[in-house]
Amino acid sequence: xxxxxxxxxxxxxxxxxxxxxxxxxxxxxxxxxxxxxxxxxxxxxxxxxxxxxxxxxxxxxxxxxxxxxxxxxxxxxxxxxxxxxxxxxxxxxxxxxxxxxxxxxxxxxxxxxxxxxxxxxxx
Length: 123
What we know:
63% helix; elongated; two-stranded antiparallel sheet; alpha+beta; single chain
């Protein structure tokens, strides 16, 4: 099999595998739950970064709005949690370790080319 044929077969397999990942709602939910919560220390860092970006500061008594100096509202906390979840899905190191990526709202395998490039020397 030539490199070109191998690459074409790999692309076809990847397309089929990606479609399976996208269609499996239970798998998507399980992965989303895992990758938005773990690793815990990474989530804490992402939450701190997102809090700062949203004008919030963490204290012993919870999150406070840095402009109003008042406790963060439920709406502000919802936005912070959603932004943190989104950041976790975009940058979670566990996803890269598992050869996964978040793309177009789904957790899917890395593209065949990216996977082959991870192998020493690629194909």
